[in-house]
Amino acid sequence: MDLPINIVIGNGISLIAGIFIILSMWVNDEKKAYKYQFLNAFILMISSVFFFSWTGVVTMAIAASRNLFVYYDKLTFKLTVVFIVISIVIGMLVNTMGIIGVLPIIAIIQITLCNYYLKTIKPIKIGFIVNSAIYIIYFVAILDFSSAVIETVTALVGVVALFKLIYFDSKKNN
Q1: End-to-end alpha-carbon separation of the chain, Å?
Q2: What value does the mean pLDDT of the chain take?
Q3: Contact 132, 162 (CB under 8 A)
């Protein structure tokens, strides 16, 4: 396949994935957030093939699998460690992009730790926002501009949703 065609196809697929990442930031229900996170990761796994980002394919496959465990409340400490080790080992083995290829590995470790330790929506949203920031850098570096834009919008939506949640919680408590 020709690289420019791949970039167009990959960006189109990533745009679809972006809808789900934005939805995951907007909802205030942990289950729904992780359902949308699963769909986002699964679709980004497919788009990563078009960018020849094998680290992205691997980390998104691991992320999608992990999100299913989180969604069904089956992510144990042992599974968390397994997902982190698999992410590091396989991610480094398939990394062909140097330091840029390490960013998805860092992002998956960060969000996996958040998945295990964070149980309420406010800290989960903060974890999602930090994860988006890491992916913005990665997507720009691999020329996945639609994902970079979507992640930027996602981070902003997450910040707005978080502030609204904090504001309404403070109103309830007063």
Answers
A1: 60
A2: 89
A3: no
Phi, psi of 98, rounded to the nearest 5 degrees: 65, -135
Query: What separation in angstroms does the CA of 125 have from each of 55, 85, 89, 105?
Result: 25, 24, 28, 20
Distance from CA of residue 131 to its chain's centroid? 6
Residue among 132, 107, 122 nearest 161 (CA): 122
List the Cα angle 45/58/91 in 5-degree steps: 145
Q: Which residues contact 92 (CB under 8 A, 6 or more apart)?
A: 102, 105
Q: What pTM value is reported for the model?
A: 0.79
* Cα(115)–Cα(105) distance, integer angstroms: 15
Helices (H) and strands (E) in the chain, counts: 7, 0
Retrieve residue 169's tokens. Answer: 């919680």
Q: From CA 33, how far away is CA 123, in angstroms rounded? A: 13
Task: Convert the pLDDT of each residue in 150-162 to its tens digit.
Answer: 889 989 988 998 9
Q: Do residues 97 and 63 touch, judged by C-beta distance below 8 A?
A: no
74 phi/psi in degrees, rounded to 5: -120, 10
β strands within the chain, DSSP E? none
